[in-house]
Specification:
The chain is an all-alpha fold and 336 residues long. The protein is 81% helix and 0% strand. It has 17 helices and no strands. It is found in: Membrane. One of its GO terms (cellular component) is membrane.
């Protein structure tokens, strides 16, 4: 009992903060990439080089449905390739991470991401562009598997809730930075502005890769203290029938959180806003506002999570998401 109390009183050291920031930078990588890609798709030099048919539709004076502007199978392949690769790699990353450790998985994710980003930046045709998106997706799949687990295992129990939000915090920071760079690239009128915007994604990937070389891997707490029997008992307990509902619900929460479309909001925000009549610059600025609101909410939850608990935040967030889905749909139906 005294030993457990001492563990709970483990201080938040500079080393713990540093390693959590390095691991959390993978969220910066993910947030930046998903947001910057959505903005790049609105840039005329990018569309002119890779998707001229889409740009031609945008320049037509004939009035047409805005949704038809982006009706392109090649554009859809460019968008979906990263997510498909991320799905496949996330299935593999769980096993790989358990074998080689969280630290090496973070290094692998950074290397894959940098390779993919290089293909994107120097691409001269759509095929190379999609290859780059595939590598980026593989890197993100590994990062999203390893980073949250790494942070959880490294964080002292007292600070675990706050530090666990580090990954999401960096996702939001990356989204805000990407929105600002998209605006700057769009206003610069530089034909290669989209390459610069995409290339900046390698910065957080390099921070992650280089930083991961110097951080320790996470030891299992029970095994480190020689409590192998207790470790086995804890794993066994999760598979007992009476605990299966809780286990299923925990997994379902993460699944339904993704099904709300939160990831697509960041990726497609400029395109969706453009289709409802907002101009190119206005849609990029509105995407920036969305990113700032997201970042603010994460900061608020970071401050509250260890005081009011995760369950209340989850319920409150669920209610907000329901209103966010129902109200705009009902309003648009009423106005039409």
């Amino acid at each position: 009992m005294e030993e457990d109390e001492e563990i709970c009183k483990t201080p938040l050291t500079n080393t713990v903060v540093a390693v959590c920031i390095i691991a959390g930078s993978s969220g910066l990588m993910y947030g930046y990439d998903t947001t910057v890609t959505g903005g790049v798709m609105m840039m005329k030099p990018f569309l002119e080089k890779f998707f001229p048919t889409v740009l031609a539709k945008m320049r037509r004076e004939v009035k047409q449905d805005q949704y038809c502007l982006f009706d392109s199978h090649i554009l859809a392949a460019f968008i979906s390739s990263m997510f498909i690769a991320g799905l496949v790699s996330s299935l593999l990353a769980g096993r790989v991470t358990s074998v080689i450790g969280r630290r090496f998985s973070l290094i692998i994710s950074g290397i894959l991401f940098i390779m993919g980003n290089g293909f994107e930046v120097f691409a001269q045709n759509v095929a190379i562009l999609i290859v780059g998106r595939l590598f980026v997706g593989f890197g993100i799949g590994f990062a999203n598997q390893a980073a949250p687990v790494y942070i959880t295992e490294m964080a002292p129990s007292k600070w675990r809730g706050a530090l666990n939000t580090a990954f999401q915090f960096f996702v939001c920071v990356g989204a805000v930075i990407a929105s600002l760079i998209n605006l700057a690239a769009n206003y610069s009128n530089n034909s290669n502005g989209w390459r610069l915007a995409l290339g900046c994604a390698s910065v957080p990937a390099m921070i992650l890769t280089i930083g991961a070389l110097f951080i320790p891997d996470t030891p299992s707490s029970l095994i480190q203290r020689g409590k192998n029997v207790e470790a086995l008992a804890a794993l066994t307990k999760l598979t007992e029938p009476r605990y299966r509902p809780q286990l299923v619900l925990t997994v379902a929460i993460a699944g339904f959180q993704q099904l709300t479309g939160v990831g697509m909001v960041a990726f497609y925000a400029p395109v969706v806003l453009r289709t409802i009549g907002i101009g190119p610059e206005g849609s990029l600025f509105a995407a920036l506002v969305i990113g700032v609101v997201h970042l603010t909410s994460v900061l608020m939850s970071t401050c509250m999570v260890d005081n009011i608990g995760r369950r209340l935040l989850f319920l409150q967030g669920g209610v907000q998401i329901i209103f966010a889905h129902v109200c705009p749909s009902s309003l648009s139906t009423f106005l039409n």
